[in-house]
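Format notes (please read before filing issues)

Several people have asked whether sequences and structure tokens are stored in separate files. They are not. Every record keeps both together, in the order shown below: the sequence lines, then the token lines. Line labels are part of the format and must not be stripped during preprocessing.
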Amino acid sequence: MDAIEAPVHRPILTDEILDLLQLTPGVRCIDGTIDGGGHTAAILERTAPDGVVLGIDRDPELLTAVRCRLAAAVDTGRLHLASGNFRELTRIATVRHFAPVHAIVLDLGLSSFHLDVSSRGFSFMRDEPLDMRFDSADPSVETAAAILRTRSVAELEAIFRGFGEERYAGRIARAVVAQRQRVPLQTTRQLLELIAVALPGKVRWRAARSAARVFQALRIAVNDELDAIAEVLPQALSLLAPGGRLAVLAFHSLEDRIVKQFFVAQQHAGRVRIITRKPLRPTDAEISANPRAASAKLRVCERLAGE
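Then the structure lines:
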């Protein structure tokens, strides 16, 4: 636990989020993906002295770290923490009597904690078990190793191609099934080496690119991320007070497409006004300071009165 007492995830587009949400002292907000608490800390500061935040995360380790980092806000009642998947946003907010709210933030990006500290196999930069669950204590969620061990060639190809947009998805899927007949894949290094061998010889030098896409695809499949996004967006909208705003940070095209289509459909239905005509991107300076911000896209909408 000591490894995550300090924040390891750098919040992205924080100033832009604060400005676009039009935060003022005393309002209530929800951070549906509190992570290291970066966005929440900024929201608490902007809404001081009496603004209140409900922070949610499905990873109990991250919640423990935030509880330590923002202990003063917890102690004064300005920060309420809840363990859970944001796809259960309505239930969590209802149990906490936390609706309606002025603003909701959803940061869909993978945490730096998961990449650098968790030892759950999110990255192939270190040799770790192929777990990839955001909540490693949840026995109902299959690990990445279990998916690689049990899915058919067609199912694995669909995961690698659909969630990772990997060109050689079929070759890699066939290699996984052939390998597991001898020894099932258990570690990130084993999977990285298999991907490299499965690729055509002329592109093996860039195996890390394919590995990044396959690892992303497995992570999305393990945590059912895209369905969770599709489920949370209408819930978030329903929890907003008229004039309240929803800010969503996406980090790859599959996430951003879901958010964009939802916002457009809701605007056509007269329920929201899209604030960001085009998604906001980090500045060159922010990307230079935090390269993981490079793919971020921020979209914000406002709930209209009477909806």
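For reference, the curators noted about this record: Confidence is low (pLDDT under 50) at residues 1-7. The chain is about 45% helix and 15% strand.
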